[in-house]
Every structure is written in structure tokens, then in C-alpha cells.
Design brief:
This protein is mainly alpha-helical and 147 residues long. It has 2 domains: 72 residues, no CATH class; 62 residues. It is built from 7 helices and no strands. The relative contact order is 0.08. The N terminus is likely disordered. Its main location: cytoplasm. Its cofactor is [4Fe-4S] cluster. This is Transcriptional regulator WhiB. Acts as a transcriptional regulator. Probably redox-responsive. The apo- but not holo-form probably binds DNA. InterPro entries: 4FE4S_WBL (IPR034768), Whib (IPR003482).
Length: 147
């Protein structure tokens, strides 16, 4: 049986947020995220936390010292602009993850989304969304080439 404690990434054991009320990291709409961000600035696993949030498309709360809006901005660096180191690591890892996803889906008995997610460090839902976006983009490209 998988428990929530077993499902948490190892780095979370060292996260300072585990020692305080989780509500601190989920301020009400319009609330002040600064107390959570201040704690993140003193945490040893802030980079890992932020990378996890970016990879898993965490939509709520403060992760890695960044609000959801700040995380969206990190992922939306315009072309030609300097790429944030977190985003560069994400791009590099994405190619490796893509290869793993393709290999696991190309088996005689394809892996489940959850199994693939465990292999690449994403949630099963994140893998499923990624794969469907890739398929839609490939279909669109084929249609454009055929036109």
C-alpha cells in the first residue's frame, strides 16, 4: 500500500515548510505570500522545491519561494531572452523525460500514466497532459505540412 509519506519526494524531509502550518503557503486570494517566501529563502531545498513545482505544474501556493504567477513567468521567458537556470534545467530534463515516456508507452504492454510519472518524477496527470499536448502538436504539424 502506498501512503502519502511514501509518495513524497526525499527532499521534502529537509524542507522547512514541514515544520510550520501548511496554511502559511496557501494565502487567501489577495493575501500576503511574503511570510512563506521569507521562510523559503532560509530553506536548504528551495531549488528542488521550485523545480518540483515547475515540473508538476503546481497551480496553488508558494513553492520554492515563488507564487504561481512567478512560476508561470519563469516558464514563459520570451524567445531570445536569457533563460532562467531553473527553466534551462527543465528544458534539458524534458528531452530525457520525453525519451523515457516514449519508451514506456512503446512497450507491448504500455505503462500507466502513474508508472511513467514515477519514472520521470512527475505526477501521472502531468505526464498524461504532456503526452496529449505532444500528440496534438504533432497532428497540427502534420496538417500544416499537408496543406
Amino acid at each position: 500500500m502506498i501512503t502519502l509519506a511514501n509518495a513524497l519526494p526525499e527532499w521534502q524531509d529537509d524542507a522547512l515548510c514541514r515544520q510550520v502550518d501548511p496554511e502559511l503557503f496557501y494565502p487567501e486570494k489577495g493575501g500576503n505570500p511574503e511570510p512563506a517566501k521569507a521562510l523559503c529563502r532560509t530553506c536548504d531545498v528551495t531549488d528542488k522545491c521550485l523545480q518540483y513545482a515547475l515540473n508538476n505544474h503546481e497551480q496553488f501556493g508558494v513553492w520554492g519561494g515563488k507564487t504561481e504567477r512567478e512560476r508561470r513567468e519563469l516558464l514563459a521567458t520570451p524567445r531570445g531572452a536569457a533563460v532562467h537556470p531553473i527553466q534551462q534545467r527543465r528544458r534539458t530534463g524534458l528531452a530525457e523525460h520525453h525519451q523515457t515516456i516514449v519508451a514506456m508507452l512503446d512497450r507491448p504492454t504500455p505503462a500507466t500514466w502513474s508508472q511513467i510519472g514515477a519514472a520521470v518524477g512527475w505526477s501521472g496527470d502531468a505526464v498524461k497532459k504532456y503526452w496529449h499536448r505532444q500528440q496534438a502538436a504533432a497532428q497540427q504539424q502534420e496538417q500544416e505540412l499537408a496543406a
